[in-house]
């Protein structure tokens, strides 16, 4: 039987003895420290001498950091599949994607019945397991709308709500020996997990053939199915005495044919002996990996992830899928992959990319950019996917998703320097800094990714007191279009450092940000709900109150049209940037007289409480609305009346007024690519698709009062958009920089800045 080409996995099979639970956990910890991949535990829920396997898996996952865990195998007759699906997905999310699922159909029926299970015939138990697998997969499919339905004879769900989705694509392995179970593996499972003690070497080839034939009949590639093997009785010795009884070199020789001739790619060692586990991980696993890799190179064995034929049919033209770099291939997502629904869209906009690459390191980003450049499709870059403009996805192109690069580290409390990776969420940053009495102003949602906001501006709840997010950026690591990695700051490549602070998406992918955080303890948060039936005076009065308020106060005011018999309403989020309650009350008082107050509340809270990470793992991207943006020097009566008229006519889903000014204006206009330092307000609105024609006309009237615009809240495109976002001489300076670092416009989908032709004098 040929080698199926899977990467090798090594693990342990640990007896979950209840009378010494700490030793059981220590064996799992040893499994991790020995460099092994997974710890597995037998599952006999009817045996009072054993710990409950699922509880043990949870405990071990909490005590380890990289170790994968699985039952070996879980007793499905006593583990209701719908509940098991939610338990597995939950533990997978809690552990960061470290759960594998191995299932068994049951065999010891007397104790199963004694525990309340139903006695099944061998044929019925196979059918029941097939129904269980179908239920589990459907409940994990959180992207499909509507409840899950499986009208099984032994297990059924009737419109069960789907989710949560696991953190990773959990494989389902099945313990099987007889032909009917083997055919089930071929049809439905991701892996076959027998124990060698129940197999003969002569029986392996027929079993593999049965699985392969069933897979082919089901329209699957047999290589999709990993072959795993439980090993018992192994012992290290100076001299060889038999199979897996001898020195480590002999173990490698003994196991190598099971990979190359029989297709096994995972070996799980039982015996509960710490020394044997340690040597298996430290001596056998790396040597066997090296030997297999050498044999595969010689034989030209196809390796890497195998996708089913139905997924291959969905591949898009212009992308060399077989050429994806080795380091990126395991996490790459294509149409047809189970994870595709969770990575295709953004928070607002729908997308259908042809390939999503998910780098984990700067070197991975370099490889991703080099690969993407060779393809004949557009490239998008995503940090969190929350961006309103929708530029972090596309249709048919490549998305470089930085979500796995999510580290946050306080480098030095004395200097307040913080290292943040682009895929981190601002809620994570706030949670890390708050215990140290620090904060970075960062928008109004903790679910926003760091990379997009930190290269565009960052208008946040602390803006008037502490400035924009980019104003705290002191250094960065940037991958350019040619693969060069630049470390930039005020003295190293200062022009690129200037450009990434406001127009960063045009020049490369920032893989590390270094900020100086502000001293911020608790803040005062006021939340007010107004009757906005008379919206014009509310808007004008709000603008005046903000301009007259101390800079410690920053406010966001959002107005909504009346719906379902309710009057138009306005929600205000007002933050006083310290814990002085008396000063905050005095500053807030003028705002409460502007319109009838329907609800109000104020509290002292840490900044992290204002921006918790909501963890939108599955952006749905269902909106088709247009977003418009503009900077205002003030909110005059004419502007207020025009905005009120748009709301009254239902032409806008909402209108939002964000206060800037204060510390934002302390920075010189030419200090960063964000040049609109004199603005007092950032205004944005979401236009109704049903009335978009009239809404555009009325917005054009509002825009006569603008002095520029903020790209993060704009879906429009064209030269006039760039000219508004980057006033001269900023735009010309950006075009010159673009010509030097990205003349081919590799990064040309996120409000692209056209490069300025470099003259002979410039070139010299």
UniProtKB/TrEMBL annotation:
One of its GO terms (molecular function) is oxidoreductase activity, acting on paired donors, with incorporation or reduction of molecular oxygen. It comes from the Bacteria. Pfam families: Bac_luciferase, FAD_binding_4. The keyword Flavoprotein applies. Its cofactor is FAD. SUPFAM superfamilies: Bacterial luciferase-like, FAD-binding/transporter-associated domain-like. Keywords: FAD, Flavoprotein, Oxidoreductase. Residues 348-520 form the FAD-binding PCMH-type domain. Belongs to the oxygen-dependent FAD-linked oxidoreductase family. This is FAD linked oxidase domain protein. It comes from Beutenbergia cavernae (strain ATCC BAA-8 / DSM 12333 / CCUG 43141 / JCM 11478 / NBRC 16432 / NCIMB 13614 / HKI 0122).
């Amino acid at each position: 039987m040929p080698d199926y080409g899977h990467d090798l996995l090594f693990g342990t099979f640990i007896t979950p003895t209840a009378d010494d639970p700490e030793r059981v956990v220590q064996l799992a910890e040893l499994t991790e420290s020995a460099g092994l991949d997974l710890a597995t535990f037998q599952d006999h829920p009817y045996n009072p001498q054993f710990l409950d396997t699922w509880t043990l898996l949870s405990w071990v996952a909490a005590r380890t950091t990289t170790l994968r865990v699985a039952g070996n195998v879980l007793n499905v007759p006593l583990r209701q599949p719908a509940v098991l699906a939610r338990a597995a997905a939950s533990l997978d999310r809690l552990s960061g994607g470290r759960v594998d699922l191995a299932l068994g159909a049951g065999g010891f029926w007397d104790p199963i019945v004694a525990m309340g299970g139903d006695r099944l015939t061998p044929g019925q138990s196979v059918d029941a397991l097939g129904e269980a697998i179908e239920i589990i997969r459907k409940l994990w499919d959180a992207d499909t709308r509507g409840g899950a339905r499986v009208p099984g004879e032994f297990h059924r769900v009737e419109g069960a709500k789907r989710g949560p989705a696991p953190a990773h694509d959990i494989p389902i392995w099945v313990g099987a020996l007889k032909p009917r179970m083997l055919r089930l593996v071929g049809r439905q499972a991701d892996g076959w997990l027998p124990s060698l003690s129940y197999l003969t070497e002569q029986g392996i080839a027929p079993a593999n053939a049965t699985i392969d034939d069933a897979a082919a009949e089901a329209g699957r590639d047999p290589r999709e199915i990993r072959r795993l093997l439980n090993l018992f009785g192994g012992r290290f010795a100076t001299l060889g005495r038999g199979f897996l009884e001898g020195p480590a070199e002999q173990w490698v020789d003994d196991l190598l044919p099971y990979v190359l001739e029989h297709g096994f790619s995972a070996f799980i060692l039982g015996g509960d002996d710490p020394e044997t586990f340690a040597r298996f991980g430290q001596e056998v696993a790396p040597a066997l990996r090296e030997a297999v890799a050498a044999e595969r190179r010689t034989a030209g064995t196809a390796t890497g992830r195998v996708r089913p034929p139905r997924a291959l049919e969905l591949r898009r033209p212009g992308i060399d899928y077989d050429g994806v770099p080795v380091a990126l291939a395991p996490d790459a997502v294509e149409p047809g992959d189970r994870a595709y629904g969770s990575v295709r869209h953004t928070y607002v906009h729908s997308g259908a990319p042809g390939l999503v690459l998910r780098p984990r390191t700067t070197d991975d980003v370099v490889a991703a950019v080099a690969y993407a450049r060779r393809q004949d499709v557009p490239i998008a870059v995503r940090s969190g996917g929350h961006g309103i403009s929708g530029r972090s996805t596309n249709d048919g192109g490549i998305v470089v998703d930085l979500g796995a690069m999510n580290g946050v580290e306080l480098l030095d409390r004395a200097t307040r320097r913080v290292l943040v990776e682009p895929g981190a969420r601002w809620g994570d940053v706030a949670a890390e800094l708050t215990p140290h009495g620090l904060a970075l102003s960062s928008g109004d949602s903790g679910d926003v990714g760091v990379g997009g906001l930190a290269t565009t501006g960052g208008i946040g709840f602390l803006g008037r007191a502490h400035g924009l997010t980019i104003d705290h950026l002191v250094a960065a690591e940037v991958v350019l279009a040619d693969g060069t990695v630049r470390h930039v700051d005020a003295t190293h490549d200062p022009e690129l450092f200037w450009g990434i602070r406001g127009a960063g998406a045009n020049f490369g992918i920032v893989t590390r940000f270094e900020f100086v955080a502000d001293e911020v303890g608790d803040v005062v948060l006021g939340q007010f709900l107004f009757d906005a039936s008379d919206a014009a005076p509310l808007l004008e009065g709000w603008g005046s109150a903000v301009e007259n308020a101390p800079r410690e106060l920053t406010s966001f005011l959002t107005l909504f049209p009346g719906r379902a018999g309710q009057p138009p309403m306005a929600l205000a989020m007002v933050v006083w940037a310290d814990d002085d309650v008396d000063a905050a009350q005095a500053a807030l008082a003028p705002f409460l007289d502007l319109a009838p107050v329907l609800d109000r509340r104020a509290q002292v809270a840490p900044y992290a409480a204002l921006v918790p990470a909501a963890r939108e793992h599955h952006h749905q991207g269902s909106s088709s609305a247009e977003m418009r943006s503009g900077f205002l020097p003030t909110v005059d009566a004419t502007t207020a009346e025009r905005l009120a008229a748009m709301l009254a006519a239902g032409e806008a889903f909402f209108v939002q007024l964000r206060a800037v000014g204060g510390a934002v204006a302390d920075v010189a206009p030419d200090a960063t690519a964000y040049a609109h330092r004199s603005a007092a307000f950032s205004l944005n609105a979401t236009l109704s698709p049903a009335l978009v024609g009239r809404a555009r006309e009325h917005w054009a009237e509002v825009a006569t009062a603008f002095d520029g615009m903020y790209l993060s809240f704009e879906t429009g495109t064209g030269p006039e958009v760039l000219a508004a976002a980057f006033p001269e001489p900023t735009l010309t300076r950006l075009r010159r920089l673009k010509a030097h670092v990205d003349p081919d416009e590799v990064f040309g989908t996120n409000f692209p800045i056209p490069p300025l032709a470099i003259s002979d004098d410039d070139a010299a």
